[in-house]
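Sequence design from tokenized structure. All designs in this work follow the same two-part layout: the structure record, then the generated sequence. An example of the structure record is given first.
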């Protein structure tokens, strides 16, 4: 049976490190890293997720602020909120919870967030920096969390063939770019497959590491992987299950029972990649705060001289 890569345990370890760094940063500068989350509408799942982010920020010794707006909020009003946060020196990271209501231009809102405060890593400027291999980029949180899981669990992707199944702008594409970078967590040979790949099984059977991020249960089965493979399951799919008191349960994109019999290591769902996403959000916010405080200090020095 495969070793379990425990995302909850890894996330707890990293969050402890982040809290220590944030407290040291506060002692040195008098500044607490500030994270603002913006929620438009009353979607229960989004509301719960935003609250989780706020609690995680508080636990990490951050300054956190949640802004909740009605579902009928006009585009221009939300744009004004984002611009206000861009100008707020107490806020170093801005996260606008997606999806947004149909009257709002989602792309325009994401592009309105200052790249320096884009802790989700979705701004075109940050996407471009990631594409050229900029080590200073604020990388998207789920891909960054996956890379961190691989390194910390002893499955460094360096020199390995990694097959990423999924080509979304949120996971698949940025993960491939991270794995291709030189240095820690990179130097992999990467294949990106997707729903229209002609022979997906041929691709995944050749992989040392498989990352499944397609949003469809049982996409990766035992017959599609080789013995000793490392499997990262990004999927989170709700399926009916009368045996569960809730009437449903959450599964990933991988046939866990089958694949875990031949894999060297595998992430569970839930408890795998999910906890790492919020953890990387905290790490991005801390890094953004450091850069903004350093930049402000440099600017003050120029003015004083």
């Amino acid at each position: 049976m495969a070793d379990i890569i425990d995302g909850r345990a890894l996330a707890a370890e990293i969050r402890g490190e982040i809290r220590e760094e944030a407290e040291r940063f506060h002692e040195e500068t008098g500044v607490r890293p500030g994270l603002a989350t913006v929620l438009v509408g009353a979607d229960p799942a989004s509301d719960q997720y935003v609250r989780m982010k706020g609690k995680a920020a508080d636990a990490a010794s951050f300054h956190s602020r949640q802004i909740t707006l009605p579902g009928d909020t006009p585009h221009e009003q939300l744009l004004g909120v984002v611009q206000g946060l861009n100008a707020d020196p107490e806020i170093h990271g801005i996260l606008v919870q997606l999806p947004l209501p149909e009257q709002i231009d989602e792309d325009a809102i994401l592009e309105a967030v200052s790249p320096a405060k884009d802790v989700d890593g979705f701004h075109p400027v940050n996407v471009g920096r990631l594409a050229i291999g900029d080590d200073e980029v604020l990388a998207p949180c789920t891909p960054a969390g996956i890379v961190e899981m691989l390194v910390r669990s002893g499955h460094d992707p360096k020199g390995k063939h990694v097959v990423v199944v999924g080509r979304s702008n949120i996971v698949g594409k940025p993960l491939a770019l991270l794995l291709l970078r030189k240095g820690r967590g990179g130097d992999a040979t990467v294949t990106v497959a997707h729903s229209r790949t002609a022979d997906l099984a041929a691709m995944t059977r050749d992989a040392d590491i498989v990352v499944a991020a397609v949003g469809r249960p049982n996409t990766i089965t035992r017959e599609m992987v080789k013995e000793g493979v490392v499997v990262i399951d990004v999927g989170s799919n709700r399926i009916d299950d009368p045996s569960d008191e809730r009437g449903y349960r959450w599964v990933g994109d991988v046939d866990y029972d089958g694949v875990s019999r031949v894999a060297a290591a595998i992430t569970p769902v839930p408890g795998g990649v999910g906890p790492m996403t919020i953890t990387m959000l905290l790490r991005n916010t801390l890094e953004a705060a450091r850069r903004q405080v350093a930049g402000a200090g440099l600017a003050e020095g120029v003015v004083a001289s």
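The mean pLDDT is 94. We note this feature because it recurs in several other targets discussed in the main text.
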